Amino acid sequence: MTSTRTYHHGDLRRAVLTAALDVIRTEGPGALSLRDLARRAGVSHAAPAHHFKDRTGLLTAIATEGYELFADALADAPDLRERGVRYVRFATEHPAHFQVMFRPELFRAEDPELVAAKDRASTELRAGVSGLPAVRRGENPRLAGTAAWSLAHGFATLLLSGNLVGAVGERDPEEVFRALAALMFEADGAN
Predict the structure, then answer these.
(1) Over 104-117, what HEC string results?
(2) Distance CA 177, CA 188 (A)
(3) Are 90 and 70 in contact (CB under 8 A)?
(4) Within 10 A of 101 (CB to CB), how many other CB atoms are there?
(5) Which residues, 6 or more positions from 13, have their beta carbon under 8 angstroms from its beta carbon?
(6) CA 175, 73, 148, 191: dihedral to nearest 10 degrees?
(7) Residue 47 gets which letter from DSSP?
(8) CB proximity list for 75: less than 8 A, separation 6 or greater
(9) Hey, what domains does the chain have and what are their CATH numbers?
């Protein structure tokens, strides 16, 4: 006999997203299963498909939400260094989103909502690059932006994976990042 549970849930979409973020945070995106998430939410195994269609749709929704949260986190930062600090803070506060956002093989990259969220986040990331000393000296702003992004993303990734335990120690990771950014991007060019 099949289950006769009915679909009555206040906000199934949010419940499934929250459960998925918990799974990703503890086990990684490879452990996601819509059936398991439905069980966690207390609904029929088919109910999540009404909101996400499939696992890829769920991961697309997570990436979209992540980029929206990311853009919000970067907004109004006074300079590029503080954008980097907010990048690191976002990664530590939203590690599951962070894991999905930069893995395009997990989601539908052409999804219009995702594209819009990524574009907004990219605009926020690029803001402040013109203030870099290298750009003021005539260096390519795109290349300088890539260098800044690489520093923030690399630091955040290494921090989340536990590879900076010795380097950071008991210090605030945001302060460590500020110091690194100063070393890398605030040189006046004089030797």
Answers:
(1) HHHCCCCCHHHHHH
(2) 19
(3) yes
(4) 26
(5) 51, 52, 61
(6) -50
(7) T
(8) 124
(9) 9-52 (1.10.10), 56-185 (1.10.357.10)
What pLDDT, in 10s, does the model give residues 120-176?
999 998 887 877 777 888 888 888 889 889 999 999 999 999 999 988 889 999 999
The amino acid at residue 74 is: L
- Rounded Cα–Cα distance for residues 145 and 151 (Å): 10
Q: In the numeric block, which tokens belong to residue 21? A: 């973020």
Name the amino acid, one letter, at 67.
Answer: Y
Report how far residue 174's alpha carbon sits from residue 23's, in angstroms, rounded to the nearest whole number: 26
pTM to 2 decimal places = 0.87
Count of alpha carbons within 13 angstroms of residue 80, beta-carbon side: 28
pLDDT tens profile 41-66: 888 888 888 889 899 999 999 999 99
Residues, the chain, total? 191
Residue with tokens 């939410």: 41
